[in-house]
């Protein structure tokens, strides 16, 4: 077979190396790539060579192994088979081995090109060379040539054998980058990325854009900060540190310090927010921090522009103008093909004529032009594309993925500056160059943000979290237009074309940043270390140096061996203190004395010298034992190191390394680390290691290494007493007496011996038969013997809880410190801390807790488990006696806890579990919440009818208590009391009602109102007035509950349950055929278009009437600026000198009503209610009835729009004269069931209840509840979280 055709053949793992090793020549290693040079795929990282001398080569026959050598942060070895490793045994075989391959993850496996050379000592030009390239993995740890050199050529005469009989093998290794796993953004692009904390990609995109505005970065560097301020506590310091590391760090940068300075926690890091919202909040905070500094105006100078709003009369000389600033512009995407269409739409002129004429001071109603132009543009123009809009039909936010084009250059002076105001400075050229494209990929409920940025104005870079890569212009621009993916269709003949398929692109531009070309040199200035204050620079350099050192240590960790060495002194410190079981916890060993970090090629003899230096134990008195993790989960010394092992390098001790157990990080980078745990036995001075040899099996007459603990039952302590190497022929009792005598006890004291076998999952401590020899007790190296004095029966019974070691260790293993907290105060400190056993039963635990709380009846305690992950109580409490032991209570999904929550009930738990507690709020006939929420407790088989009867009785009791209290107070003071009539409550006041009646002396207005309402309710209950139960949520009624429904089916954790007396006009006896019961609710107005918004503003000021089309309407010059579905109050510039809105007529009226019908109303608030609609009742009569129920002043109620909202039929605005019976009959309205109608009327009725999910009456007005408004308490759910984006710094 030719050399080129030879197969590379790895050596089998079963071939062991010989102990003797050849001589070693030093390794020559040099890096081939300097930092800063652009790396190419598979570029070399390091290269080096190593020479190996094999003496007496002609006499060698078995496999030879070189010493381990290091090249390119990897350890290597050469393997040589002098007589070939396979038949026909005619060649010399040479292989290169990576001995760490078995412990190295795939992404860290080295890829190397290498040459294997057998040197010719007579003529160097005849060196025999073969080269190969290989990735060394766990499956292929070595690579080379089985037929390296024919044996017939290996001779002194040929020159391949030196005169002294040695053969020299040389290897030259070049380690290559593996681009599958290694990508260096700094080397490839000159920039580094930001690490994603969970869902912070939106923030990463924004920070990269701001960093790549050098003038902004320089301003951040110039912000004055205290010298010793922590980055996590200061926003300016955190941002300075982040920008510095982005500029000079070698790898991806963490944003944790910055988010900590925001005041964010882990929850915020996993909640994705809007990048535009964060941009505004961040810039506002920075602007605040920059006040009174030399960079105070930076934010405004970079991002602030000004608009010019005008209303100009067409036929007369009158013009009203206003100048406003902006930091970014929101451009429409829907209905616009490109960015210029958006600017055209933004500056579109609206003609105010006809009914929408503009009212002037001097000329009356006039036709006018209204619009917005730009007075000036900022140097950095931030454009927010309105990709997200509210869809009225779906009642939800949707993402607009329409195609929308933007350009590399943006000319805002186009068409003779049509976007500019008349007095704008036209000397400044408004020609912009695209700097950044922030992209959102995904939908409304989630997605991913990344950015395309052009820092140098030429090359586009993609900043995608921690990766930065070069991209072409098509990816940055064309690919982010959105719309259908037409590239899927190729140029095929027309006859062969199928129906074209377009795939929606969910990845598209969301924010564009343009920089004015004339300002580009200023904005994109150079930023160097000279721009940073010296004290700040020193600290930033120190911080980055520390981070790089930690990173370097991490990257070179695979070159080092970590050794943890435990001695008798360490075991003595831990036993009886931090642990009672086993011998030592290596993670608790003192690092300065017991932890060693040494390079893997270090000789073990050198390691022993280092141990002697630290511990003071001479090398000749050191004997090392390996630790073994036994099948019973204990860890004990197993065997001493052999002479060959102590003569080798640390890397050769790979067979005794401590590998992570399953489930404890066995995979990943940690697997490549070499951790070795050893026990150092200090040998006596006068005894040689051969005298106390431990290599022979104890059953064959050898010695055994045993460890001893002493237990004192009187003090209940256990201590470590050292180790002994003992012959197997010693009798156990003699050993025990010797140990007691060594401790200073009398020799004739009886001794007890135990072997500590295991402690998980249960304790196993076995008594030893003192009459037997050690060899007969099945003892092995590392076993633990516990000895103690045998106590007399009198002492044991009178003074000792645990007379023997096995009983004491069983107690220690089972005891638990349990912290009990009140369920209603989960974050407070524990009320009681008790020491209990894991086997403690439910009853025993309750008894102990009741004793600590001084409770008479432990059965009145209800227990709730702890949630390990949320650090909160679990949702459901523990049912009575359903948990057998404390151990089950303290486990949550295999995680142990030490917290238990408790409640003290007013009756035993087993009785309460036969009952159901329902939280119900009582409301009066106006729908107003009265008093406090009631907790009604009934048997589970009870019905809603029983619940309402209990509520009626509760109301009568409350009224009687108030009467008794008033009587006693009257008798004490001599002041007579009276029962006031039902006044308006705070709710009524908040909704525009009359002022409440004066409160009796000593009572607040609210208390007086509640008292009057309770007394009125008691009178209704006494008269037998029926009640009904409603399920409400978010200020809307969703269901009238059937009185025959079981209360066990009610869910008061989700619904808000509301009980009320059926109003007199809605009783079954009052209702008849043709009557309707309709649900009513209060809501805010939706966001209105300009004309409708102006009409609403005028109506709010009392200038317009809602009812009747004859009311004057506004021209629409007022734009909606409100949030949450409302409209902000008018500003001074929105009205003329007389305080009137310009323009009158029916146009605003119609626009207002059309907007109400086409859009869903805003958020509901207040208390909903039911109202009766009589046959052929008109809309005007319905409005009057609503006004009477609410008690609102007629003048104020006249300004409240009332409309029908539903899905069948759709929203409808009815005029005052419209017949509601005809309206209901003309639509296919889905009515509620007859059962629900009867429940609403308190008895059987022929009236119709309209389903609230299909149609309801909505009353639109402002929510003026303020702090005095009393409403039904919301559902108390501990697991509901809602947080907006916020920077608290």
Automatic annotation (TrEMBL):
It comes from the Eukaryota. Residues 47-173 form the MATH domain. Residues 192-517 form the USP domain. Keywords: Coiled coil, Hydrolase, Protease, Thiol protease, Ubl conjugation pathway. Residues 964-982 have a biased composition (Polar residues). Residues 990-1004 have a biased composition (Low complexity). It is an enzyme of class 3 (hydrolase). Residues 1-19 have a biased composition (Acidic residues). It catalyses: Thiol-dependent hydrolysis of ester, thioester, amide, peptide and isopeptide bonds formed by the C-terminal Gly of ubiquitin (a 76-residue protein attached to proteins as an intracellular targeting signal). Residues 1-30, 962-1004, 1106-1132 are annotated as: Disordered. InterPro entries: MATH/TRAF_dom, Papain-like_cys_pep_sf, Peptidase_C19, Peptidase_C19_UCH, TRAF-like, USP, USP7_ICP0-binding_dom, USP_C. Its EC number is 3.4.19.12. Residues 530-557 form a coiled coil. Belongs to the peptidase C19 family. This is ubiquitinyl hydrolase 1.
């Amino acid at each position: 077979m030719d050399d080129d055709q030879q197969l590379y053949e790895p050596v089998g793992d079963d071939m062991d190396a010989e102990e003797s090793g050849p001589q070693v020549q030093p390794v020559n290693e040099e890096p081939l790539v300097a930092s800063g040079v652009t790396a190419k795929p598979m570029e070399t990282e390091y290269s080096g060579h190593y020479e190996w001398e094999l003496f007496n080569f002609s006499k060698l026959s078995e496999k030879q192994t070189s010493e381990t050598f290091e090249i390119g942060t990897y350890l290597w070895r050469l393997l040589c088979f002098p007589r070939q490793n396979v038949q026909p045994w005619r060649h010399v075989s040479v292989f290169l081995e990576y001995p760490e391959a078995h412990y190295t993850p795939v992404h860290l496996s080295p890829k190397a090109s290498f040459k294997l050379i057998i040197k010719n000592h007579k003529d160097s030009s005849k060196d025999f060379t073969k080269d190969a390239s290989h990735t060394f993995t766990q499956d292929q740890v070595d690579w080379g040539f089985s037929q390296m050199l024919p044996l017939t050529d290996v001779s002194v005469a040929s020159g391949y054998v030196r005169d002294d009989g040695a053969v020299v093998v040389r290897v030259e290794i070049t380690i290559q980058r593996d681009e599958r796993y290694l990508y260096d953004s700094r080397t490839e692009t000159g920039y580094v990325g930001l690490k994603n904390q969970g869902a912070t990609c939106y923030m990463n995109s924004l920070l990269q854009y701001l960093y790549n505005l050098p003038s902004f970065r320089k301003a951040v560097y110039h912000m004055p900060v205290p010298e010793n301020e922590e980055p996590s506590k200061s926003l300016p310091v955190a941002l300075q540190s982040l920008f510095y590391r982005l500029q000079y760090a070698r790898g991806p940068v963490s944003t944790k310090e910055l988010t900590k300075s925001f005041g964010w926690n882990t929850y915020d890091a996993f909640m994705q927010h809007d990048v535009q919202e964060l941009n505004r909040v961040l810039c506002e905070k920075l602007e605040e921090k920059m006040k009174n500094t030399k960079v105070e105006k930076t934010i405004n100078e970079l991002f602030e522009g000004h608009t010019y709003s005008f209303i100009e009369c067409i036929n007369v000389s009158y013009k009203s103008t206003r100048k406003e600033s902006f930091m970014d512009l929101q451009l429409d995407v829907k209905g616009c093909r490109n960015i210029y269409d958006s600017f055209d739409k933004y500056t579109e002129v609206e003609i105010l004529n006809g009914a929408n004429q503009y009212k002037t001071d001097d000329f009356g109603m006039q036709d006018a032009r209204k619009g917005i132009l730009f007075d000036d543009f900022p140097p950095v123009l931030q454009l927010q594309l309105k990709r997200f809009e509210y869809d009225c039909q779906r009642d939800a936010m949707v993402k607009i993925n329409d195609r929308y084009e933007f350009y590399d250059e943006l000319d805002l002076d186009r068409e003779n500056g049509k976007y500019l105001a008349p007095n704008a400075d036209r000397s400044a050229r408004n020609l912009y160059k695209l700097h950044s494209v922030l992209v959102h990929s995904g939908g409304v409920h989630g997605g991913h943000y990344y950015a395309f940025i052009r820092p140098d104005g030429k090359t586009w870079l993609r900043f995608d979290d921690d990766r930065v890569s070069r991209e072409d212009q098509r990816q940055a621009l064309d690919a982010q237009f959105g719309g259908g993916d037409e590239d899927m269709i190729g140029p095929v003949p027309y006859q062969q074309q199928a129906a074209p398929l377009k795939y929606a692109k969910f990845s598209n531009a969301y924010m564009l940043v343009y920089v004015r070309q004339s300002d580009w040199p200023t904005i994109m200035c150079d930023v160097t270390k000279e721009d940073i204050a010296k004290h700040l620079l020193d600290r930033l350099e120190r911080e980055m140096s520390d981070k790089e050192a930690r990173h370097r240590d991490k990257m070179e960790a695979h070159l080092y061996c970590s050794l943890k060495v435990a001695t008798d002194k360490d075991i003595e410190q831990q036993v009886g203190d931090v642990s009672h079981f086993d011998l030592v916890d290596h993670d608790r060993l003192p690092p300065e004395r017991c932890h060693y970090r040494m390079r893997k090629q270090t000789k073990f003899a050198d390691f022993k010298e280092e141990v002697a230096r630290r511990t003071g134990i001479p090398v000749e008195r050191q004997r090392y034992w390996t630790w073994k993790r036994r099948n019973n989960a204990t860890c004990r010394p197993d065997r001493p190191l052999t002479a060959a092992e102590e003569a080798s390098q640390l890397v050769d001790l790979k067979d005794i390394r401590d590998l992570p157990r399953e489930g404890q990080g066995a995979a990943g980078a940690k697997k490549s680390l070499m951790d070795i745990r050893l026990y150092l036995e200090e040998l006596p001075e006068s005894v040689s290691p051969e005298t106390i040899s431990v290599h022979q099996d104890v059953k064959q007459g050898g010695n055994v290494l045993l460890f001893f603990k002493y237990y004192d039952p009187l003090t209940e302590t256990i201590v470590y007493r050292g180790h002994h190497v003992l012959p197997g022929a010693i009798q156990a009792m003699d050993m025990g007496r010797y140990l007691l005598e060594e401790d200073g006890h009398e020799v004739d004291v009886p001794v007890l011996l135990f072997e500590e076998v295991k402690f998980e999952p249960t304790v196993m401590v076995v008594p030893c038969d003192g009459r037997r020899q050690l060899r007969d007790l099945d003892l092995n190296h590392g076993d633990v013997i516990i000895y103690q004095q045998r106590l007399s029966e009198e002492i044991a019974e009178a003074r000792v809880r645990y007379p023997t070691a096995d009983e004491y260790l069983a107690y220690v293993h089972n005891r638990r410190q349990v912290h009990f907290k009140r369920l209603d105060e989960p974050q407070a400190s524990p009320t009681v801390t008790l020491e209990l056993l894991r086997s403690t039963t439910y009853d025993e635990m309750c008894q102990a807790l009741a004793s600590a709380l001084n409770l008479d009846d432990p059965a009145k305690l209800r227990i709730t488990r702890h949630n390990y992950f949320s650090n909160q109580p679990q949702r459901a409490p523990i049912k009575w006696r359903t948990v057998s032991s404390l151990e089950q209570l303290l486990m949550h999904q295999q995680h142990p806890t030490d917290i238990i929550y408790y409640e003290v009930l007013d009756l035993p738990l087993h009785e309460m579990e036969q009952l159901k507690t329902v939280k119900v709020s009582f409301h009066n006939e106006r729908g107003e919440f009265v008093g406090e929420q009631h907790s009604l407790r009934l048997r589970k088989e009870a019905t809603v009818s029983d619940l309402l009867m209990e509520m009626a009785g509760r109301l009568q009791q409350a009224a009687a208590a108030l009467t008794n209290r008033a009587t006693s107070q009257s008798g004490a003071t001599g002041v007579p009391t009276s029962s006031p009539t039902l006044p308006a409550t705070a709710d009524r006041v908040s909704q525009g009602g009359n002022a409440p009646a004066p409160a009796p002396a000593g009572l607040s207005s609210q208390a007086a109102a509640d008292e009057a309402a309770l007394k009125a309710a008691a009178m209704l209950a006494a008269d037998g007035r029926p009640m009904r139960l409603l399920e409400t949520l978010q200020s809307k009624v969703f269901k009238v509950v059937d009185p025959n429904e079981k209360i066990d089916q009610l869910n008061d954790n989700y619904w808000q349950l509301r009980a009320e007396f059926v109003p007199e006009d809605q009783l079954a006896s009052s209702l008849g055929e043709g009557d309707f019961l309709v649900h009513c609710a209060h809501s805010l107005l939706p966001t209105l278009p300009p004309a409708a918004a102006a009409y609403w503003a005028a109506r709010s000021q009392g200038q317009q009437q809602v009812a009747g089309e004859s009311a004057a309407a506004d021209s629409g010059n007022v734009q909606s600026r409100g949030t949450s579905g409302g409209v902000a109050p008018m500003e001074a510039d929105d009205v003329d000198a007389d305080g009137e809105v310009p323009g009158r007529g029916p146009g605003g009226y119609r626009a207002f009503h059309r907007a109400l019908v086409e859009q869903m109303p805003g958020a509901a608030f207040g208390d909903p209610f039911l109202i009766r609609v009589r046959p052929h009742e008109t809309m005007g009569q319905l409005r009057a009835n609503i006004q009477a129920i609410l008690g609102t002043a007629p003048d104020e109620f006249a300004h409240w729009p009332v409309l029908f909202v539903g899905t069948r039929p759709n929203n409808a605005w009815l005029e005052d004269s419209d017949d509601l019976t005809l309206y209901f009959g003309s639509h296919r309205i889905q009515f509620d069931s007859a059962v629900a109608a009867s429940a609403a009327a308190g008895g059987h009725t022929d009236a119709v209840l309209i389903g609230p999910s299909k149609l309801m009456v909505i009353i639109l007005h402002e929510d003026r509840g303020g702090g005095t408004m009393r409403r039904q308490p919301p559902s108390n759910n501990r697991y509901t979280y809602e947080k907006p984006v916020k920077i608290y710094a």
